[in-house]
Prior knowledge:
Blueprint: H1 9-22, E1 39-40, H2 41-51, H3 56-67, E2 79-80, H4 93-96, H5 119-129, H6 133-157, E3 167-168, H7 183-187, H8 209-222, H9 227-232, E4 238-239, H10 241-257, H11 266-282, E5 284-285, E6 288-289, E7 292-293, E8 298-299, H12 318-329, H13 363-375, H14 379-396, E9 401-402, E10 409-410, H15 416-427
Antiparallel strand pairs: 1-2, 3-4, 4-7, 5-6, 7-8, 9-10
Helix pairs in contact: 1-15, 2-3, 2-5, 2-15, 3-5, 3-6, 5-6, 5-10, 6-10, 10-11, 13-14, 14-15
This protein binds (2R)-2-(alpha-D-glucopyranosyloxy)-3-hydroxypropanoic acid.
Amino acid sequence: MESRAAVDDAALGREAWSVLDANSTGAATVPAPGLYPHQWNWDSTFVAIGLARWDTRRAGTELLSLLAGQWHTGMVPHIVFQPAHEEVYFPGPAIWRSTEHRAAPHGVCTSGLTQPPLQALALWWVWRHAADRDTAAALVRRIYPMLVAQHGYLTTSRDLGGGGLAAIVHPWESGMDDSPVWDAPLEALPPVRRAYRREEPSQWQPDSHHDRYMALVLGYRDSGYDPAYLRDEHPFAVEDPMFNGIWLASCQALAELAPVAGADAGPHREAAERIRAALLDRLWADGAFRVRDLRAGRLSSIRTVGSFGPMLDAGLPADRVAELVVTLESASFMGAAGYPVPSCEIRAPQFDRSCYWRGPSWVNTNWLLRRAAAVHGLAGLVRVLGSQTLRLVRQAGFRECFDPFDGSGRGSRDFSWSAALTLDLLADTVEC
Length: 432
Ligand code: 9WN
C-alpha cells in the first residue's frame, strides 16, 4: 500500500487548505483540476460544509457560485461549466446545450441533470457554525428562496412514482455513478448503437454502460428537458434512498432556517414527514432501505452505502435505526473492512474493492454517515467514523476514494471534498 508518514492535525489542516486553494477558481472549487475541471453540485456543497466552521464568507461564495447555475424550474444542475476548460470534460456544454433552453440561466453553461439536494443541509451547517452571525444571516436570507424553489422542483417534477419521493433519471444524479444498483436498470435499456467515449476511438466498445449514460442524456435533452417526458417515456427512473435521505435532511434544515428568513417552517416539517413515510413505505424491505426501479417495478437486492442515507433523519423510528446500525457494523460493511465505509456490501458478488462506487470507501459518504450517527446520539459510531476517516487521509492523502481493506488511495489526488471534510472533522473532535 502507498502510505506516507502520519501527519499531525496542524499539518493535515495546512495540506487541506492548500488543496482547496489550488482547486479554487476564485468563486468555485472544482473537484480535481485534471479530471474534473468544472464545478460539481454535491462536491461544491461538501466544500461549503468543510469551510463552514472556518470561513463563512468563502462557504457562502461556494454555494452562491453553484446556485448561479440554478434553472428557473428550481433545478440545481450537477455541473456548472468553467468556460476556460469547456472541452476538457466529456460530456461538455456542446452535448448538454443548456443555453438553448429557456429555463436555463444566461451567461453560464450547465448540465441538465441534478445531484443529491444537499444544499439546505450545508446552508444550515454554515449558519450553525458561523462565528460571523450577520454574514451568516444575510446568506440564509439570500439563499433560502433558491432552496425553496429547488425543493419545489423535486416535488413537482421528480415524483415520477407518485408516492412522495424524488426519482433520479440518470446514475450521475445519485453521485454514485458506478454503483451496482444501477446495473439492472441500465441493462434493461435498449441497446445503444453508437459509442460515446472519453477514450481514444481504438478503445471504444459500443453499448458500454457509458454509452447508455449518454443515450439517457441525449434522450432527455432532445425532449427539451421536459418533465412530462421524464414521467411518461424516459427509460431510467429510480428512487434512491441516499438522494431522498439527503432531501429529507435538507427539508429539516430548511425548517430550522425558515425563521431566519422570516418564513414559515411548517411546510418543510410536513415535507420531511411525507418523505419519511414514503421512504418507509416504498424503499424499506428485508431490514434495509433499497433502490426502487420504477420502470421495472422492483427493489434492488443489493445493499450499498446509500442504503443508510435515511438515517440522516432524526425522526427515523428507533427500531429501524437499530437494524441499520447492525447492518452497518456487520461483516457486510464496516465489520470486515479495515477502513469505513465500503460503498457496496462486501458479500455482494458485484463488490469490487478498486472500482469507484462498487466497493471503495469515500470521505463524503463517511461524513454523511457520521452525521447520521450524530443525529441519533450514537457517540461510539461517530468517533469511529471520524477517526478512521482521518486515518485514511493521514495515511494516503486527499484521494478521491480508498481501498476499504488496506486504505490505499484510488482515483484523483488532491480531491476537494476529501480535503474540505477533513477540515470539518479536524474541528469537531469532541462535538456529536
Ligand atoms: C459524473 C465529480 C463527480 C462526483 C461524482 C463522481 C464522479 C462524474 C464522472 O465525479 O461523477 O458526474 O464523470 O464520473 O461519481 O460523485 O460528483 O467529482
